Structures are given as C-alpha cells and as structure tokens.
Amino acid sequence: MTSLVWIQNEQRLSDNPLFWKVRNDSCILPVYVIDPRKWENNRLGLSRMSALKTRFLADSLQNLKLKLSQLGSDLHIVEGFPEEVLPALAETHQLRRMVYTAGHCSEERSVQNKVIQNLNHIGIEAVAEGEHTLIADRSLPFPIKALPDIFTKFRHSVERETTPPAELPVPTSFPNLPKGYAPQSWPGFEASKIQLEEHQQVLFKGGEDRAMERLRYYTTESRLLSTYKETRNGLLGSDFSSHLSPWMAHGNVSARTIYWQIKAYEAQYGANDSTYWLIFELLWRDFFHFTARKHGDDIFKPEGFNQTYRKLGRKPQRDFWQWTRGETVDPFVNANMIELACTGFMSNRGRQNVASYLIHDLGIDWTAGAAYFESQLIDYDVHSNWCNWAYLAGVGNDPRGLRKFDTRRQAQQYDASGEYTRYWTQHRIGA
Prior knowledge:
17 helices
C-alpha cells in the first residue's frame, strides 16, 4: 500500500492515528496544504489567521518536518486548495489512498468532500482515521444525536461507562518517501519571515517538542498539577494553569497523551481534586466537540440552538471596536483584551468576563465576539470557541439561560492587587 497522509490538526508524531495507520505501507507522503481560504477576511474585515496564529502554525509545521526528516521522511508543505493539490500529488506519485482525520463542521466537511470526490474520480481511496477527542465517539454511551445538552449529564455518563483509549506509540521507522520525491521546504512559510505588528509578542512557539516540554514541566518537573484547581483562575504569568491549549489546538499534543500523563502523575505523586480537574477540563473540550457535531451550523447562529432563551444583540459598532482594542470604560476588560491582542492568548477567567461584557453590558451580537476570538486566539478551536460563546450568551448549553458576570466584582476577586490590570493597560495596541 502507498499512501498520502493529509496532515491537518495532527501536527505531531506521538499518538498520531494517521502515522500509525500507514506504518507498514511501502511508501507514504505526508502533506500539509496551506489553504488560502483560511487567511481570508471574516465578516468583521479581519483575517481569520492573525500573524501570531500564523507564526505558531509555521513553528509547528517546521518542527514536524524536522522530526519526520530525522526518521527519513518529510512533510511536504504546499500552498493551494486541498481539493486540487492533494489529488494531483497522489496521482503524480502513484499513491493508492489518502489517509486523513475527518472534521465535522460545515467548512471542514465541504473541503473534505471536494477532496474525496476528486480522488474518487482518479480511482484513489480516502480513508478517515482517528479523532481529536479524548473519548472515541464509537465508545460514547449514546449516539451523537442523543448527546445530553447539559455537561453534567454527559460527564457522569462518560466517566461511568467509558475509558479513554491508550496512546499510540511513535512508529520505530517510517515508510519510504515516493520514488523520485525530493524533500523540499516552502520558503514562504517560515516563522522568522512572518511579520508581527509592533505590539505583538511571541509567548508560545508551536511544535510537538515545545508541547511535550510544557507538559513535562507542568507535571513531573514542577508538580504544579497538584495545585491546578486552586490556581486555575489566575491571570498573570504562566504557572497558574497548564497553558497547553495552543498546542492542543494544533494537534502538537493529543488529549489522550495529556490524560495518560495525568494518570502516570497520579500513580507517582497521588491523585487529588486538582489532578482530576484537568481531566474535567478535557471532558469539557470533548463535550463541546460533540455538541458541535450534534447541532451543526446552529452553533454559529445568533439564536443558537437553545430553544428556551434567545437574546439577539445589535451589530458591531464603535463600542465593539473599542472593546477589541481594550478602550472600554472597564479597566479589567481592557487588560484582558490588550493581552489577547498582544499575545494571542487570554486566561479562561478573562475570556468569560470579556465575553459577558460584550454580550450583556454592550449588548452586541455574541457572534461578533466569537469571530474576533477566531481571528486572534492561537489556541482557537472551532468547537470550544463557538460553543463557549453561545453558552455565555444563553443560546447554547447553559441550562440557566443567562450568565452575566459582574466584571468589577470579578476584578476585585481575581485581581485584588490590580497588578494584572496595571500590567496590561500600560500597553497600547493602536487603532
């Protein structure tokens, strides 16, 4: 068997079902396609991939390319439309099948369907392999259409009736590259050549090596995991939470690798509420993934999918753009928004507050906030981002219907000294 391996958000060697699937093939060609549609402007007129997001992706791909080259393989990085590029590569190199991980939101499905259709026209098979969740969908105790819309019900059923699959090892050797293929790089997509804006700063570098360094640091090296539940609402610095989400979003590390690392940590140092709480957060991630699959494009609509409460906001106006630049009348909101613009990251506590402020204090359509986050967050995950925003807007999974945060009280509770607010509000991000 000869295979094209379509890399998307599986930018790693460890626990990668795609590489495990093709480990015994006679030859493989791993490919990442830089689809220009991902950099198109969204309805706000903002690129869907900020410079910081693009730089993280470039770092991630270069790291995977290096790791593959050390095993005698390569990552072919090419610009174009996947439905055109992938069939052409498969035909040129006489590859008999394409292996990929299926996406389940409409944009991802649309591209994948075009790729599969064009492959079928030239007699090449497409095989979907693996998933991005901790729990395999085939082992869920209910079909996707019967997924509970309340997280607690989902969690109790999953914890009682399922166990995450074991990690897949890295193959000890990789199949050959296709005969006549010359390893190459695409000079237009190197992290060092991606120009950042003046206010932007790189706090996270993409790649599996960096992801595993962070995972080791947060667990066995520092043992910060043992206090995660107590510190997870922190705001300043990097040690208050795992900060693994950027690498998870790009598939530099899998949820299963993190889960089994936690279990190994518990065996060595003991389990407590904090070690469990990080698993709890992984289950929230799964829940939103499956929710997006159940409700489809309704997760992107202002009215959402919750039939019990609907509060439609107004279109973005001047105060929306002031919110994006951290120029509102609320210093705590401003600090969080400036941090996002400067680093591409924001704490979970910050995200809840700025989203609530946009929706409930400014009265703006929540989907505008979700679209802005999509353009800026280096840990952007379509399922978690949109379902979290819908949750806070009262049109998603939240059974309470309305979740409004008192941002001034939150600042007093989580930034009592004002250190975080002072640190970020001294920055300016321009017009």
